[in-house]
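In the design runs reported in the main text, the only information available to the sequence generator was the tokenized backbone. The following block is the verbatim input for one such run; it is reproduced so that readers can re-run the procedure and compare outputs position by position.
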């Protein structure tokens, strides 16, 4: 291509010279000179112009590549921020993280075990922790540094462990409920409020719990954590597909089958026999609608929970603000509790239509569950001690019964020997009785025969006697 352009330029140069030569007979020098100078300038400027055009072409290509990269980065940025339909975006993740943080209240992470006993543990702030300065007083003087954790606060302790995938320390083992008994800007001393479990004591004493996390509130239970990644709502499951492998891994092998099924069936369509607390209704709004969600009462979650008796938020961190109402647009779908809530929206206000009825596992409140477990364990310990005492009595009774059994076994052996002897003697007696019975029968037969013979003789004697009497009577009459 370059040689072709060069050839065209050479031909144009020779053509210019030819035409100038032909015109020289009719043109004056002052006419030919500007034309030659113009040709020389054109030929001279052509090369830097070509360089500029070539450079412009290269920069234009760079510009197009950068625009493509910018579009790609912008698309990746949007996918990271908002998701791509199959994965969740950073904004949604941030919302979830903020929700988890809100549910857990204040948290103090990466605290180092500075020594102590399971009954009184001292924790130090992380090495990079900077104490918080207290606000200055009215006179402008500094008020010093704030304590690491307010004294008297009830917190929940977890032993941290490194996540092999991210390398970040995350809460792993639950270590119990504690009360802050002493505090400073960089250290805090905590004491358990309840009897600790043996495995919790072992984790503290063995050095397994080197790094701690303390939470103001126990996190709340949820549905989303047990769903498979990327699963979405369907007609058969309003929440999405439950990850059975994850459920079994998190719950362990000792969970009752009915509890395991409640997690695996979370979000399915409603069935006959489902408990009332697990019945939820999916409704679709047929017009714009608003629901009051903020309670007129104002208090912290530690003073009685996040919600009042009507389910409205009392903690300022959960309240919607403004007019205290959540607004829904026509066509929007939400899950509401079956019964009064769904009846009010669908039948009374006629603001929505029924889409489907589903089973949602009742969520756990770990604060009360742990207390119930503690009470249950205490009861089991009491029952265990009673059973131990009963076992001692049963062991003593068993020992006495074993000794009695030995005695009875000896008596049984003697009785069996007596029985054998008795059977032997009984057999001999029976044989003798049979022999005597034979003799008696023979004697009876002989006596019967003799009796009959005696009867015959007696009859014969009577006839002879009668004949003698007749003869005597005849002789007497003859005289």
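Verbatim output:
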């Amino acid at each position: 291509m370059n040689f072709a352009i060069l050839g065209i330029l050479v031909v144009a140069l020779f053509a210019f010279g030819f035409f100038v030569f032909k015109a020289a007979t009719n043109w004056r020098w002052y006419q030919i000179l500007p034309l030659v100078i113009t040709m020389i300038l054109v030929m001279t400027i052509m090369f830097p112009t070509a360089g500029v055009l070539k450079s412009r072409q290269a920069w234009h290509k760079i510009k197009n590549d950068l625009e493509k990269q910018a579009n790609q980065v912008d698309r990746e940025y949007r996918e990271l921020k908002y998701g791509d339909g199959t994965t969740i975006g950073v904004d949604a993740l941030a919302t979830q993280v903020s929700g988890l943080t809100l549910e857990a209240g204040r948290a103090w992470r990466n605290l180092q075990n500075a020594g102590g006993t399971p009954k009184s543990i001292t924790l130090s702030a992380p090495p990079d922790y900077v104490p918080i300065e207290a606000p200055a007083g009215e006179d402008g003087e500094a008020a010093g540094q704030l304590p690491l954790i307010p004294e008297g606060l009830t917190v929940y302790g977890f032993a941290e462990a490194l996540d092999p995938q991210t390398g970040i320390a995350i809460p792993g083992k639950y270590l119990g409920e504690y009360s802050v008994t002493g505090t400073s800007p960089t250290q805090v001393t905590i004491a358990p409020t309840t009897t600790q479990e043996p495995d919790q004591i072992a984790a503290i004493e063995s050095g397994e719990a080197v790094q701690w996390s303390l939470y103001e509130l126990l996190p709340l239970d949820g549905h989303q954590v047990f769903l498979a990644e990327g699963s979405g709502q369907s007609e058969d499951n309003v929440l999405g597909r439950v990850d059975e492998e994850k459920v079994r891994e998190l719950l362990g092998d000792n969970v009752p089958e009915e509890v395991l099924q409640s997690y695996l069936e979370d979000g399915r369509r409603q069935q006959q026999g489902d408990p009332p607390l697990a019945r939820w209704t999916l409704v679709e709004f047929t017009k714009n609608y608003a629901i009051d969600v903020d309670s007129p009462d104002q208090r912290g979650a530690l003073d009685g929970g996040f919600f009042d008796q009507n389910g409205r938020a009392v903690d300022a961190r959960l309240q919607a603000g403004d007019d205290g109402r959540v607004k829904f647009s026509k066509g929007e779908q939400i899950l509401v509790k079956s019964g009064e809530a769904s009846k009010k929206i669908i039948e009374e206000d006629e603001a929505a239509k029924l889409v489907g009825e589903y089973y949602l596992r009742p969520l756990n409140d770990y604060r009360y569950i742990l207390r119930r477990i503690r009470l249950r364990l205490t009861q089991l310990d009491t029952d265990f001690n009673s059973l131990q005492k009963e076992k001692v009595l049963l062991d003593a009774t068993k020992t006495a019964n074993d000794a009695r059994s030995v005695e009875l076994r000896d008596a049984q052996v003697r009785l069996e020997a007596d029985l054998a002897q008795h059977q032997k003697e009984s057999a001999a007696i029976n044989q003798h009785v049979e022999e005597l019975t034979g003799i008696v029968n023979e004697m009876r037969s002989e006596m019967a025969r003799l009796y009959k013979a005696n009867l015959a003789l007696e009859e014969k004697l009577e006839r002879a006697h009668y004949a003698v009497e007749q003869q005597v009577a005849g002789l007497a009459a003859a005289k």
